[in-house]
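P.,

For your records, the input lines for the assembly:
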Amino acid sequence: AQSVSQHNHHVILSEAASLELGCNYSYGGTVNLFWYVQYPGQHLQLLLKYFSGDPLVKGIKGFEAEFIKSKFSFNLRKPSVQWSDTAEYFCALYKGADKLIFGTGTRLQVFP
Amino acid sequence: GAGVSQSPSNKVTEKGKDVELRCDPISGHTALYWYRQSLGQGLEFLIYFQGNSAPDKSGLPSDRFSAERTGGSVSTLTIQRTQQEDSAVYLCASSLHPSGASTDTQYFGPGTRLTVL
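Structure tokens returned:
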């Protein structure tokens, strides 16, 4: 069965620190991968997505993610976080015409 | 409206009662999805509609859960004889069509927080 793993459950950073959130998936076929973000009190929003082509995907608010097929990974990165990045981040796998399979999420807290 | 809307935003009910949750997808989106977000458990797929039909009901946790979609638009998720473990945030999402193209992005609503006492 397909699955998505996010090993970092809770990450605490100071402003300007660099961020990398891990996402690993298990699926042998063609994958579409997503990162969603849920800011406090708000609904899920798409940060970025990978369908094909350049494995380095740039999203909104300075986020990027790199698809490494050999490692079954799609880690999210940001070189310098801000307090406003405090949120919960979800990695998701989309296998064709079907549902999204989500990881359990990573809660990011950024302190000024 | 430009986004997915859900109602009610909050629902408190007593154990054993039935509840109905509503989702209005983005206009023109043919695919509609229901998910459940439980504390500490991430998001769990429940059911997916393409038009009015539901080709994938695999995520419904029990036969107390059902969903329908009429007119290819509004969907209702019904939970009968609610239990305390049904307490969660129920999220609805829509996408233009699930064909594998770039339009597959799912857009989420704000959710309905269900509390079963």
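Two observations worth noting. Residues 32 and 97 of chain A are 11 Å apart (CA to CA). The radius of gyration of chain A is 13 Å.

Regards
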